[in-house]
Write a structure and sequence with these properties.
By secondary structure, this protein is α+β, with helices and mostly antiparallel strands. It has two domains: 209 residues, no CATH class; 166 residues, no CATH class. Helix content is 30%, strand content 24%. A hairpin with a 5-residue loop joins strand 14 and strand 15. It starts with 5 loop residues before the first helix and ends in a 39-residue tail after the last helix.
């Protein structure tokens, strides 16, 4: 049932067992890096909620993916010592946490095990944990639970969990009663290890997942160390620009301060909008488009190419094709020369807006149902809204990721792995219906997330997990391999139709 989530959780454990690794925070321990509590697949098997997730988990493609993932974890150097114990972490109720310094955290694992599995942990943990070369590797029994630790003195996290079990019979009180899974993480401290941008302010994150009817309900809290610079304004939706049939719709606001400080926006002297809208249509592939406010765009667009061409040269030096062209009759700026895609920007049908995308195709012009835009109107604390039909959007993202790899000069990902076959198996994807995510501001330093979905993930997130599972360094993160090297220094900036630089082809070392 929760098998599709388990590899993602174990990845956090892997990151923490490796130098330069990971974080998250908690109310009772200022040095908490990451912690999760998982009910275990055995306990969840009888749950009457979350029928869609159970249906996905029962598919042969899901079982094959889980088996393959466990085999890779058992073979990977960093997780090989856990090979005989991995199924216990999947099957039984558990708490896993890391505290201390991100470079060498203290880890505590508590599992509620039947006697025969508890005996295995008691007899093998010391030898298992020795592979991580830490000073202490204790393991004790506390009622129905086994508590195992690895780290240096004084192992404060291990002792806290052990004492809670002795006193209360539980390793920790859940914040969300009835949750299948709770995760807490200090993303600010995790960012370097996870490859997240370090120029952003990352929050302390708490997520909880549970079944609600046939779907999965996710609730989250994002807590920041300082007040958020997040100007919220009445929603101004470009209703004449967004057209049906839609398979996704996204609205985001409060981004003006961040965009205004972005080097590219400043270099191009662009107005920084506060709201951005995105949508994908079912008319044809690649019809993911965006709209935002840009006053007097029709008169300002012709002045953009002379500034944009050198900016693209500086930021995308490996590209060996492309030409910026202004289409006067449409007041449309296009970047031509690519296979398949034609990036464009032009004034939108709604006055004061522009629209942009990678494929300027027109189609049916029916407006979306008014109920969609009603989800935004009048909501003064809504920061982010996203709706999608996950199955068709999953196919859309597959095409978009392929285009991204091609344009960025990355080696294509594997094409016949269990993860890829899972993504393409309609017996799996037919279960993936609507997903709705909302993020609201609940305080000066806090955002709240609520999501209803089939398996807890959106199409974009599912693809990201699949790529992680297929990574050559799995379970560590695997940066993409570039097969197009950086170009030689760009020539002086040209005019409106100046070609973009040609790159030298070769593998980057």
């Amino acid at each position: 049932m929760m098998r599709v989530v388990f590899p993602l959780l174990l990845g956090a454990l892997v990151v923490g067992c490796t130098r330069g690794s990971g974080p998250a925070t908690d109310a009772d321990a200022a040095d908490l890096l990451v912690r999760w509590q998982f009910a275990g697949t055995t306990q969840l098997a009888g749950d009457t909620h979350g029928a869609t997730l159970r249906a996905v988990g029962a598919e042969p493609a899901t079982r094959a993916l889980v088996s393959h993932t466990l085999e890779r974890l058992a073979a990977a150097p960093v997780t090989r010592p856990l090979a005989p114990l991995l199924n216990d972490l999947l099957q039984y109720e558990s708490l896993v946490q890391a505290r201390g310094q991100p470079e060498r955290p203290e880890w505590t694992l508590a599992l509620r095990l039947p006697p025969e599995r508890a005996a295995v942990w008691l007899s093998t943990w010391t030898n298992t944990a020795a592979a991580w070369e830490r000073a202490r590797m204790p393991v004790v029994r506390a009622g129905d639970w086994i508590v195992a630790g690895v780290g240096e003195e004084p192992l404060a996290g291990f002792e806290t969990v052990r004492q809670r079990l002795v006193k209360n019979g539980r390793p920790g009180a859940p914040h969300e009663p009835g949750a299948w899974l709770e995760v807490e993480a200090d993303l600010a401290r995790l960012a370097p290890a996870l490859g997240l941008p370090t120029n952003l302010t990352w929050p302390r994150l708490h997520l909880a997942l549970a079944g609600q009817g046939e779907q999965v309900r996710t609730v989250g809290r994002l807590s920041y160390d300082r007040p958020l610079e997040l100007p919220l304004e009445p929603w101004r939706i470009p209703t004449n620009t967004i057209r049906d049939p839609l398979i996704s719709f996204t609205a985001l606001q409060g981004v003006r301060p961040w965009l205004a400080a972005h080097p590219l926006v400043r270099e191009l002297e662009l107005p920084a909008p506060n709201q951005i809208y995105g949508w994908a249509r079912a008319v044809a592939p690649y019809l993911t488009q965006f709209a935002w406010e840009w006053p007097e765009a029709a008169s300002r667009l012709p002045a953009l190419p002379p500034k944009l061409a050198p900016a693209l040269r500086a930021r995308l030096p490996w590209l060996d094709f492309g030409e910026l062209q202004l289409v006067p009759g449409l007041t449309r700026l296009v970047w031509t020369g690519f296979p398949i895609l034609v990036p464009f920007i032009n004034p939108a049908p709604d006055p004061g807006f522009v629209t942009a995308g990678i494929f300027p195709v027109t189609g049916p012009e029916a407006p979306p149902p008014p109920e969609l835009f009603a989800q935004l109107r009048g909501r003064t604390n809504l920061v982010f809204y996203h709706w999608e039909l996950t199955q068709p959007r999953l196919a859309d993202w597959q095409e978009l990721f392929m285009l991204h790899d091609m344009v960025a000069g990355y080696a294509p990902p594997p094409t016949n792995t269990p993860a890829v076959r899972w993504l393409q198996d309609t017996n799996v994807t037919r279960h993936l219906g609507n997903a709705v995510t909302e993020i609201t501001r609940t305080g000066p330093r806090e955002l709240a997330l609520v999501r209803r979905s089939a398996i807890g993930l959106t199409a974009f997130e599912i693809h990201q997990v699949a790529r992680w599972l297929d990574g050559r360094r799995f379970p560590l993160l695997s940066p993409p391999v570039r097969i197009l090297g950086a170009s030689k220094p760009a020539a002086a900036a040209g005019g409106t139709n100046a070609p973009l630089p040609r790159a030298q082809t070769g593998r980057q070392h």
